[in-house]
Write a structure and sequence with these properties.
Collagenase (Catalytic Domain); 8 helices; alpha/beta; 7-stranded mixed beta sheet; single chain; globular
Length: about 250
């Protein structure tokens, strides 16, 4: 590698880090500025009134062979979407809505295929501390460009602060992942989208709304997918946290 190539790579990495820091600062500011409006639900969210809303966008990535979920197979997302809608409605009175609207096919309001081949760093992601580190690299930069509701993941253009689920090839040692607080997205393996029940997207959106793993099998936040039993529920303090999330609003 030539000297100038090394300089360009270093500069590119530095720009990604600066952009990631800017995203963290903006989200921290949003949390602080909106916290006074969230105090009621943080204490009394278990009441579940009045109804609140959460906007959701599903972004399907492409590898060298095409979309991880083909366009004519996007309907296979419905079981996961419906499970998410039912769980949040029944256990928090939160109505989950699509971020987009006006498409002929209803599924296209919920899910869209991202154009172009995604970088390997975004297709095959880490979790836990590795996912946080990825946020400052190529993967985080790519996700920021395609997350719903903001420009470059920095400037909000929607006061709904929607959640984006990226459908990826692989999440290291897991089936889905969410970086706490500093992002507006989750990652879910394409193998977790199936015509039968899959609670992984709903579980990750729960993490996105401030919930952590919980030790009861019928709880949506139980950490082992294979041992998670329906009907999924959220207990009273989990409802407080979900309803007080920045992604859950009264108006938008």
């Amino acid at each position: 590698m030539s000297f100038w190539s090394r300089v360009k790579n270093i500069a590119k990495k530095a720009v990604r880090i600066i952009k990631a820091i800017a995203r963290v600062v903006v989200r921290a500011a949003v949390i602080v500025l909106t916290s006074p409006f969230k105090s009621f639900d943080l204490v009394f969210g278990w009441i579940g009134w009045p109804r609140k809303k959460l906007k959701l966008h599903i972004a399907v990535l492409q590898n060298a062979t095409g979309p991880l979920i083909p366009y004519d197979k996007l309907d296979t997302l419905w079981p996961s979407i419906n499970l998410l809608k039912k769980t949040f409605k029944d256990h928090g009175n939160v109505e989950v809505r699509p971020y987009s609207s006006g498409n002929k096919r209803e599924i296209d309001n919920w899910a869209q295929i991202v154009g172009g081949v995604a970088p390997n760093a975004a297709l095959n992601v880490d979790c836990d501390w590795g996912a946080l580190w990825n946020e400052f690299g190529e993967a985080g930069d790519y996700f920021a460009k395609h997350v719903a509701g903001s420009v470059g993941g920095v400037i909000p253009i929607s006061l709904a602060f929607p959640v984006t689920i990226f459908i990826v090839e692989d999440v290291l040692n897991k089936v889905g992942c969410t970086v706490p607080l500093v992002t507006d997205y989750c990652t879910v393996e394409s193998t977790q989208i199936m015509p039968t029940d899959s609670s992984t997207p709903a579980h990750e959106v729960g993490h996105r709304c401030n919930l952590w793993d919980y030790g009861q099998h019928v709880n949506l936040m139980f950490h082992k997918l294979s041992e998670r039993y329906q009907p999924y529920w959220l207990n009273w303090w989990q409802r407080n946290l979900v309803r007080s999330s920045r992604h859950v609003t009264y108006v938008f």
